[in-house]
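Workshop exercise sheet. Pairs work together: one partner reads the sequence aloud, the other fills in the structure field after running the prediction. Swap roles for the next sheet.
Pair: D.N. / O.F.
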Amino acid sequence: MLAEKFIKSAAVYIILGMILGIYMAASQDHTQTPTHAHLNLLGWVTMGIMGLVYKNWPAVAEVKLAKLTYWLAHITVIGLSIGVGLLYAGMVEYEPIAIISSLIALFNMALFAFLFFKNA
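Structure field:
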């Protein structure tokens, strides 16, 4: 079930986000705060809410393109976490990873909204 996949994935991402947060606190190095925020917001909050929407509006989850939103969500969480992480580690040459991932995130949210408005 698509809703369960989203919610289970969100649970994994919050654990990863918490591990990063604990690492930053323990090391007293908070330069990866934006990475931590993207991981938690896109991974935990956004994917969790998407899962709850799909759970409460099953007609939306049954549309074939809904499965695409799941994979695009993973691409954006992973891509933005890596891209922002490298950017804030001083490796600005990897900024295109963050840019492309942001554009995929925007497309995914537009697709999600379209599917919701059309099928809910």
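Discussion prompt: The chain has one domain: 2-119. What would you look at next?
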